[in-house]
């Protein structure tokens, strides 16, 4: 299992992450844009993900909710800029618990020797908003989701 | 006439601009989201603007082209995150002459004593992309467009 690498320079409203998965790019891409695969890994393990809409095309919008057994529910939504492709995609992102704070994520997928490196470049409207997101446990939540993605990819690779 | 104030800190992939117009916020907002008004001011004076699509709603997309008498044409497109309102809006932005480089603009409109201050916060995927945009004459083009906006607003105020 690899670890999530997170880069968040002081004073810059941006976060980079990187993690490598033992699966071809085409499968990793499917796990990011097919709703029935996405709900099986995105977000921390204790949440159930429900997709309201997920229209992975240029100008398409998405909204999903993470909920737990205690009755907490957290909504997220945004739009896609450009058509998602195996090279990656660009989307906006807003956590509905902090309305009005919008970020933009660029995700790229690079395959080498059968493994795929997923890189994200997230831009925030201010350093304060970036710091709040990092301090809210962004990396831990992402890494937890990525552990689940690794498990899902292993299943998909095994059943091809 | 006021001047455009531009802030672009070294090493940060972000540009802030600010300019105040002698018109109420509701009119300035209309000039930003009504296509027949937008074509009358957006961009440098030597270009003719043609709107392909301009769907100012949550998840709506836009595309426009600036062309000149010499046959040059420059396309731009993006999507709106959230519904535009007189408070402002968030949109992605891609210059088709540099495909794959996407930025996100947050525009806010604040009215005080009948004047409206327009502020933009533009985020770029890298400092290099930000610097390239600034060096391409972003501020000059914006200021030229804003001079035309000032003239348009004066007409709209006079004919209300």
Give structural notes:
The structure is a homodimer of 160-residue chains. Chain A is α+β, with helices and mostly antiparallel strands. The first copy, chain A, contains four helices and eight strands; from the N terminus they run ββααββββββαα. Chain A has helices at 25-33, 35-38, 127-135, 138-158, and strands at 5-7, 14-21, 48-54, 61-67, 73-85, 88-95, 102-112, 115-124. An eight-stranded antiparallel β-sheet of chain A has the order 1-2-8-7-6-5-4-3. In chain A, strand 5 and strand 6 (88-95) form a beta hairpin. The longest helix of chain A is centred in the last third of the chain and has 21 residues, at 138-158. The radius of gyration of chain A is 15 Å and the shape is globular. The mean pLDDT of chain A is 95. Chain A binds chain B through residues 11-14, 58-61, 78-82, 90, 92, 94, 102, 104, 106, 121, 123-125, and chain B through 11-14, 58-61, 78-82, 90, 92, 94, 102, 104, 106, 121, 123-125.
Short summary of the structure?
The structure is a homodimer. By secondary structure, chain A is of the alpha+beta class.
């Amino acid at each position: 299992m690899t670890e999530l690498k997170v880069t968040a320079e002081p004073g810059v409203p941006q976060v980079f992450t990187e993690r490598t998965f033992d699966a071809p790019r085409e499968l990793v891409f499917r796990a990011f844009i097919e709703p029935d695969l996405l709900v099986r890994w995105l977000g921390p393990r204790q949440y159930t993900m429900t997709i309201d809409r997920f229209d992975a095309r240029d100008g398409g919008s998405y909204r999903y909710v993470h909920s737990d057994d205690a009755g907490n529910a957290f909504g997220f939504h945004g739009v896609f800029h450009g058509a998602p492709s195996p090279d990656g995609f660009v989307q906006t992102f807003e956590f509905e618990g902090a309305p009005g704070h919008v970020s933009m994520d660029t995700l790229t997928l690079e395959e080498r020797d059968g493994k795929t490196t997923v890189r994200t470049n997230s831009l925030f409207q201010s350093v304060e908003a970036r710091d709040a997101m990092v301090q809210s446990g962004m990396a831990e939540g992402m890494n937890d989701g990525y552990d689940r993605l690794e498990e899902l990819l292993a299943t998909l690779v095994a059943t091809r």
